[in-house]
Amino acid sequence: MNPRTRAGLQLLVLLIVGGGLLVMFPSTLKFVEGAAREIRYLWWLILLVALAVWLIWGVGRRPKPPRD
Q1: Is 62 helix (H, G, I), strand (E, B) or coil?
Q2: Taking the complete model, does pTM exceed 0.70, yes or no?
């Protein structure tokens, strides 16, 4: 399995799990809808999520060596 296919599969599984959790916990869906409406008050939440994504997938990765 090449890396592109694997990344696509991981994204698909993540979306399915996230959708399933939102269906199982409707109160979470209400919170997400409210947060989307009041995004101007929750801008820090977006920054925290972006920081978490950067820390999980960005930090500690070695740059790829140049191809000759």
Answers
A1: coil
A2: no
Looking at residue 68, its pLDDT comes to 65
Domain span at residue 33? 3-57
Count of all residues that appear for the chain in the document: 68
SS3 8: helix
With respect to residue 37, please indicate whether it lies within any of the assigned structural domains: yes
Q: How far is CA 37 from CA 33, 40, 45, in A?
A: 6, 8, 13
Q: Count structural domains, the chain.
A: 1
Residue 50 located in a structural domain: yes
CA distance 55 to 47: 12
